[in-house]
Each structure stands twice: as C-alpha cells, then as structure tokens.
Amino acid sequence: MVEAAKILDEGKAVSLTFPGGVEQRFHAIWLRDNAWDESTRAQGNGQRLITLAEISPETRVVAARTNGHKLQITFDPGAHEVSYDIDWLAERAYDGVRPRVAGWTAPGIETWDAELGERVPSAEFAAVRENDAALGDWLSAIHRFGFAKLVGGPVRSGALLEVVEWFGFVRETNYGKIFEVRTEVNPNNLAFTGLGLQAHTDNPYRDPVPTLQLLYCLENSASGGENMVVDGFRAAQRLRNEDPRGFDLLTRYCARFEYIGGTGVCLRSRRPMIELMPDGELVGVRFNNRSASSIVDVPYDDMDDYYSAYRRLGELIDAPDMQVTFKLQPGECFIVDNTRVLHARRGYSGEGSRWLQGCYADKDGLLSKLAVLQMQGEHAQ
C-alpha cells in the first residue's frame, strides 16, 4: 500500500510515500517507458512494442491516484492512462541509490574460503534429476557459492551431458563437446597430464569465456589428483582490503591471454583480471598463469605496482586458507561458475587411473531455469 502519491516538478516526476514514511520518486519518462499496457508491451512475452523515440521527451504526468495495490497514471501528451502494480514499483525503486565501495557483490552471492569445509554444497544425482525442488536448491547453491557437487550419478561416459540438459546447453569449443581429462602423450593442454595445476579459471583467452564448467569423474584410483576450488571473489575482496591501489590497477588495466595449442586454433582476449561493472559490482575474475600473454596495456609508471598486485592475487589464490579440497569418486561431479570460482588439481602418480570428462555451458541458462523454478514455487504457495 502507498500512503500518498504526489506529482512533482510540473509533472516531470511522481512521489510515492510508503508505510513508515519512506518516499520514492519516479521520473515520468521512466514510468512511461516501463508501462505494461497492451499498447506498450506484448502481453505474451513482455517485450516492448514501441521505441523510446516514440515516447515524447515532453512526457508529463497530469494525474496520479492510488487504488489499493495499483497506481493509476495519466500521461500527456495523448492522455495515455497506465496502471502500475505498487509492489512492482517498490521492487524497482531507484531513488536514494548510494555509491558503494568498488568490489561489492550482488544480493544472493556469498563469498567463502577454506572454512566452508563441510558445508560444500552437494546434492544427490537422482533427487536433482527427478525433483524440481531439489534441482532448484542445487542451482540456487551454484548461484550463491559459485560451485556445487553432485554425487551418486551413473558411471557412464557422457553422463555429464544429462546434467547440463537439466538447465541449459553444452557450449562446444575446439576441445569438442566433451573433453577427456586424463594423461596423454604430447597433450595440447597441460590439463591432460598428471601435473598439478594452480587454481585458475578456464579458457580466459576466449571472449566471452564459457561461464560454467562441469567435471564428471569416471575413474579415480590414482594417488593424488584431488580437486580444489577457490572463490575468486573472496580473493579479490581480500586484495582490495589489503591493497586498494593494487586492486584498482587489476580492475582498471587489461591483461592479455592467448592459446595457440592446436592446428587452426589461435585464441586471444584482452580483459582485466578483476572485472567490475561501471557501478563497482564485482562480476568476474580471469586468472590463468598458463595462458597469460605479455601484459602491454599498463603504463610504465604503474607496471611495478601492477605486478605486485598480480603477485599478491596469486598468493591469495594459492593460500591454503582459501582452498576447499575434495576428491571425486566415480559417479560424482562438480560444476563451477567459471567467471568467479577458480579450480585446481593436485598432481597424481602413474599408479592407478584417473579419468574425468568435462564440458562447458553458460550460466544464462542456469539462471533462467532457476528463475522459472522459483516463480513456479511462488505460484504454488
């Protein structure tokens, strides 16, 4: 409910006073652009039917009145009448937005370190496959923590494709739809050896990078080979708290990444190691020493400090108190948000066998599926 609706500045805005005296102002042009009437939006899919150019820059509110949970607005020119859901407006209020410290994270994101320990998000394969509520909980955990495990799955080549089908689509690359992670002779990537790997994000040389990576275990009797994950967002925040200038340098200047490891393949990208939105939201980390190219976009006067920050970020990523470690068993897998969570592997010996299959996907599909499941849950209540 709204206690009062008032027209401001000769119709250029409307003020709504909510319970408790909280006032939120909305510009007339914003309200008109966000109208949901049949002449403005397609009722089936919500897409706009008109462009901003078709809305007069002289748009003004000439009448504003509340009716229960609705706000009735009349615009001029054209005496166009529109009804708004007040709760919908309250969720989208932009008045009073305050600057935030660079490196803030979106609601629903929880950063973590080694203390996550026994709280590693995990779910049963069969439950997630057969129950939408379990699937929603698992997808929600991936969104919250940036990774999650799945246990009790079939020990079958290609089973990881079924997992991706629950929420989206496989993103095929030069490594194929599925790539095999096991020791090879003369491999085209160090991931296909028994060497230990520093925590990293995958494919930083792509633009855009695959935003999800899935690794599924089929054999794992070799000594060693434990998987580790590190929250890149927590590492970036620790760097910001220790060295604000270093954090700024890694967000302001681009690193370069390159992969020329196969016939007919030459992949290059130019992006910051720590990526922020214009308002300072932390949205991405790219860190992969194996694929780093020459850094040439940093001015001479900043290069020393840039490298100090780069080194410190690597130290934070390598720190034991930042790492969560687990060893996958056959039929288990884990998925990581490849724009946030770095993954690593301890070296393993030639005794026994280790065979994982991997694939890439994108989190727009995951977030879409999660949103649909959440809306269905709300409607069922």
UniProtKB/TrEMBL annotation:
Coiled coil location: none
Entry's family note: Belongs to the gamma-BBH/TMLD family.
InterPro entries with a match to the protein in the record: AlphaKG_dependent_hydroxylases, GBBH-like_N, GBBH-like_N_sf, TauD-like_sf, TauD/TfdA-like
Limits of the Gamma-butyrobetaine hydroxylase-like N-terminal domain: 9-89
GO biological process: carnitine biosynthetic process
Domain TauD/TfdA-like residue range list: 122-360
Protein name, UniProt field: DUF971 domain-containing protein
Keywords assigned by UniProt, alphabetized: Dioxygenase, Iron, Metal-binding, Oxidoreductase
Protein species of origin: Paraburkholderia pallida
Taxonomic superkingdom: Bacteria
Signal peptide interval: none
